[in-house]
Write a structure and sequence with these properties.
Blueprint (H helix, E strand, L loop, with lengths): L1 H19 L2 E8 L3 E7 L2 H13 L5 E7 L1
Antiparallel strand pairs: 1-2, 1-3
Length: about 70
Amino acid sequence: MKSYLLFFSSALFFTGISAQAESYWLIIQNSTYGIEKIEMKNMTQCEEQGKEYSKSPGIPRYLCLVGK
């Protein structure tokens, strides 16, 4: 019984930590598929990937967003 209690209390602890973490999203407008979202590691990676995607034909715009 104690092991179940320990398991559930640790699961709640780690769930609380991940809920507070920020997430970074690259939103691209694709003429074929509409709007796509891709999760990124950080804002720097998002900006770099967005610039690369914007060079591709059919993907004229991108936007980087921070989520929680």
